[in-house]
Amino acid sequence: MSAGYVIEAPKQASIAVTGSDQRFPVRRIYCVGRNYVAHVREMGGDEQRDPPIFFQKPSDAVIDSGSTIPYATITENFHHEMEMVIGLKSGGYNISEEDALRHIWGYGCALDMTRRDIQGNGKPWEIGKSFDQACPCGPLSPVASVGHIDKGAIKLTVNGETRQESDLSLLIWRVPEIIANLSTYFELMPGDIILTGTPHGVGPVQVGDELVGTIAGLEPLKIKIGPRPS
Questions:
Q1: Are 198 and 36 in contact (CB under 8 A)?
Q2: Strands 62-64 and 29-33
Q3: Which among 110, 137, 163, 198 is least buried, having the fewest CB atoms inside 10 angstroms?
């Protein structure tokens, strides 16, 4: 048992790092909703540049590439949402857009898995978005190796069939704007990760499906959908 705690301390959530045995520790997971025009339209929304929608997932929802994740409980419409994730090395309140990029440690591929049939309808998004293993993440690539990413192909295949395909240049709210806006609500900290939004083409997965997410210049994300927990 860990010294100083009355029960065993939870394991630190973390993400693999490209080309390294070290890992990126995860403090919080922030997500941006409806950040591509075509996705806003497919969800029945207005494509105006409304303020970004933010929500969170629990840090231990992170799961490594190569894993099998269970088909989520309490849903019959389990959806994939392919996204770029950024990991922060520093933070603060009221970060300016001009200063935002210097807080980023690295970039990677991620999935915002969603219980679509219980998301929304006037209810908090949390129950539809924040559950066990709801945030598969590929290895993070450091800015020192890949630079800052603001364009490039983003794609998801399911069993080899393309489901989502777009370009990061089509983000409604760009990465510096996301960081600046989010930092007005929360004090951002080292270890925070931000999922930057999904393009159009979101849809259901089934047990046995194999998902591969790619972003130009980054390590791919690969997961498989396993049976629902008993």
A1: yes
A2: unpaired
A3: 163
Say if residues 175 and 192 touch (Cβ distance below 8 Å).
no
Q: Give residue-wise pLDDT tens across range 68-106.
A: 999 999 999 999 999 999 999 999 999 999 999 999 999
Tokens of 103: 């807080």
Six-digit token pair at 126?
Answer: 């949390």
Q: Where are the alpha helices (H) located in the chain, listed in sequence order?
A: 37-42, 97-100, 126-129, 143-146, 175-182
- Residue 99: φ, ψ to 5°: -100, -5
Rounded Cα distance, 41 and 222, in Å:
27
Cα–Cα distance, 116 to 180 (Å, whole number): 29
Mean pLDDT of 126-132: 94
Provide the residue type at 117 as one letter: D
Cα(38)–Cα(109) distance, rounded to whole angstroms? 20
pLDDT of residue 108: 98
State which fold the 15-226 domain adopts. Answer: Fumarylacetoacetate hydrolase; domain 2 (3.90.850)
